[in-house]
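In practice, a research group might receive sequence data for several interacting partners and want a quick structural hypothesis before committing to experiments. The following worked case mirrors that situation: the sequences arrive first, and a predicted assembly follows.
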Amino acid sequence: MTTSSSPTAPQVCWGLEQHMDEVAAAIGMDPVDLRRRTLIEEGAEGPTRQVFEKVGVRDTLERAVEMIGDGGELPDDEAIGVAVGWWPCMTAPSGAYVQMNGDGSATIVTGAQENGSGAVMAMPVFVGQELGIDPNDVSILYQDTDVAPWDMGSCGSQTTFNSGRAILAAAQEVRQQLLDAAAEQLEADRDDLELADGVARVKGSPDRSVAIADLVGEIGTVHGKGSGEVLDAPSGDTGGCVGRLGNETFLAPQLITQAAHVKVDRATGVVRVLRIAAAHDSGRILNRAGADGQVLGGVVMGVGLALSEGTMLDDQGRQRNPHLLDYKLLTCSDAPEIEVAWVEYDSVGPRGTKGVGEPPQVPTAGAIANAISKVIGRHVPRLPMTPERVWEASRGISA
Amino acid sequence: MTRSFVSAATVKDALSALSGGARPVAGGTDLVVGARQGKAPLPDAIVAIDRIPGLRAIDVSDGGLRLGTLVTHGDIMASEEIRTRYTALADASAIVGSHATRAQGTIGGNVMNASPAMDTGGPLLCFGATATLRSASGERSVELDELWTGPGSTSARSDELLVALDVPAPSAGTGSSYVRLEYRRQMEIAVVGATAVVTVDGDRIVDARVAITALTPTIRRVPAAESALAGMDGGEGAVEAAAAAAAAASTPISDVRGSAEYRRAMAAVMANRAITAALTRARGGSVPIPASPALHGAS
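A structural hypothesis for the assembly, expressed as tokens:
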């Protein structure tokens, strides 16, 4: 079995969420209703006595179920399955510089990098908002660890959560310098000033303003550095059975419900995933197109993990399928229709954000597994749930 | 490592290169991929035949169909004549590899590669195609079941070039289909495949040909399946008996693509679907080309 992101989470979620469906069946309850009764809500106490703040996991369940429909009219070889998952926001040190340029534009220097996921998309937005300039006038100098302060890099769904915090702190230093200079130049009280549309101006008197570019020319050197305060995870009681697993409490958890509509060819075990409804709580969304893209990509990887992507080894540990003919990635033709919804509550992250990158493939395999078992009447005991394994399970042969 | 590469302008040039020990290449989709995967090193001497004029024609006459060796899968799937009268062949060419493979890969290369998993093999065999092999000393015509002698091996001599495939015209009332097990919708290779070519007269099946793919060392017809259908009305019982015969004739291997047990069970499923689709087409009903993806999910 493989994983390309959120290591171990899709596999655990696949097992756990099938168990939830089995429990629901054993007590004669609808699996969605069981989750309605068990998912955390504000004020609830977790297994390590953490009392939860407002999080949107129940909202994600309702949104996903609403988007996928109740499946009442489906043919008997199709079914809908639901799975709920989570992924942590990892808290870590980070640092960044922001400097103003003579033309009123700004440059961010960060050790984080863009690796195709849009991880740095939030950074110019943060700086633009803080300094009252167009985010398009903010460039990023990144990936040069000789120049930038220490950073984990773009990984672990934490780039916005940690680097974003550092960049906001650096931008706030610059903001103070600009406001100080503007107060002197406009002969106004600093607290009466705002930075907007590329100028510093007196609130309510837009004609009393000075261009930020002119301020920079006046001051000469305008730059800030920041790290921000590294957040601690809430404390919890580590005495219990989940106490020492490394994530005993949830800091700004990213929460997800996905519902999968699948069609199973009972005679062959071939499964087609027709639709996925994905509802996510990743805190406040800064860039909808970028965030949606993360979900679309993650879900497709999740479907591959669920159905076809598996590393096979011989008894000497050599890979038996070391090429893409027999290590089967999904093709575009196999990708399901994917509908995305965001449930937005403020988090402790910068500007209310959490991470986005890894959660999208956490519950996909679990949702597909629950749908398959509704059609064939049994759970498939291994990942990936290949046609042969689905066929075996449907005939009661254990793999 | 290849030491000599020539591009032949005529069949004669190609034949003379073959006599000198060169191996032919057309689309290169098997030769190059196989070498990269370590299946077989590239030959010492290669003669490219892809620019020889006249070898890429699809000729249709009352007697049947002649496919030049350089006809691509893309050409086959686009040919209205083949889609109408040799539908199983269009089914097969339409699902070979990827778009790029279908644009580049030739029917001649496909046949001479002699893979037991080749998609077009079952349809060609059931339609009774013969291979025309030419050498400097003359030309001969070989039945496909005599051409394919094992996985990757043929009875052609090393100085012979496949120049054309001749396919007799099917009788009126013939319908055909090729169906393959597909784990995903594109970029697949046959794990199990089945071909059916049936001729009906009213309700009665007057002739039936059934072949299995990727289930035996070479693609072969299943006489027991054919006799289970011939003379019958094509009802469920006869189709199931023929499908069971196809499974019984299978001697599949277990590998990363599936166990022998699963393949044998799928042989019956694919044969059943191929026969059913061929009957539907023979009776004037519609099954999309390619049949395989359209039949997936049918329970």
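Before designing any experiment, note the following. The interface with chain B takes residues 77, 263, 265-268, 270, 272, 308, 312, 320-321, 323-326, 328, 330-334, 386-388, 391-392 of chain A (CB under 8 Å). Chain A is about 30% helix and 20% strand.
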